[in-house]
Design brief:
Length: 411
Amino acid sequence: MSGTSGPSQRPPLRRPSPRHYPPAVYWRRRLAVVLGAALVVAVIVGIVSLFGGNPGNSGKGAATATSRPTTSATTAPAPASGIGLRTVTWTDTDASAGGVVNPAPGGSARPRTLVTEIWYPSIGGSRTRPTVREKPDYGGGPYPVIVFAHGFDTLPATYTPLLASWVNAGFVVVAPFFPDENADEINSLGNATPLQLETAESDVVNEPYDIAYVVGEVESGATGAASSGAPWLKGLVQEGKYALAGHSDGAQAVVALVYAQAAHQEYATTYADLATPPFAVVILSGSELSGRYAPPASPPPLLFVQSALDACNLPQQAATLLHDVGGGFFLKLLEASHFSAYVGRGRAAPIVEKVTVAFLEAARSGQPRLSELSPFLLPAHVAALYPPSAPPVLTALQPTTAEIAQSCAAP
């Protein structure tokens, strides 16, 4: 492993079995179109059987506008005056690191080079967006870390309002650019063909290993190791205290790393090799890749966020994932799109920011309670919050091709 900026040569890496990773699995823009009427009916029946209840109701156990504010027992670090930003380039030169495929044109034989943004509490600068190389607020640290995985054709900056809310709450956000899926790489393809886009998106199978590698580099930086390329993290980030979060394809990667225990031994081994497990997992509009999923031993606290109107990551996909990983807290959005609530748009955006912060703060020191995640009134027509013991009803959608394209389009 290296903290240098340039890639180096290494032998061909092990590739996952093709039967586990058909390209169509990852091309969700085509997935809903390919599903036949019989499959849709089966999914709907399965969801009703799984969750029960009336799809038109908020669901038993939901925290809505009737919830009363409560004070969390968790004490978060004092907020700094601004948000700083530094960028590091980490290159994974480990020839045995997972089953890297990296199928994008010209990329199959190279190591994984991960340009990574680190957003941190700073002494000065803006609280709404990061300022490059602002002085870190070591006096308020060390801070817990959130490793964030972006979605297809986006960048960490796409999610600025959400990431800023996490830093302002006293977390350091570490956000790698995935080599083939980030917006800069997609833009470099020009007028990309559907096949080129599908090939780029299929790189998601490599991203669970990228996430684990970044976690290791952050942990190394927390000890002050020069080999990490970020020794300045010592005293700023808290060793062994990190959460994993991701949106869309990034959520798929996080889910695969933590929960794809039964079908993908490479992912399970990578997760088991982490020096410490995450203290929490946040899944924003996430779904499964292929195979069977199951919770790991001693699963971390888990929060789902999913819109009932999301035509890109369908509610029935989130329902399947919720069941397979053993359940978790669930924030059901009633009027958001695939992106809006995570990029600061619409009435659900501030709710997502506040609930995710409350969840992460509570999970830092134990198992969160529903009361700790509802420190304000949730408008019943905008969102509803459910505990693991009372999951929501998620009604299956049957979007058209145009609706899928519109919903999946990055802002």
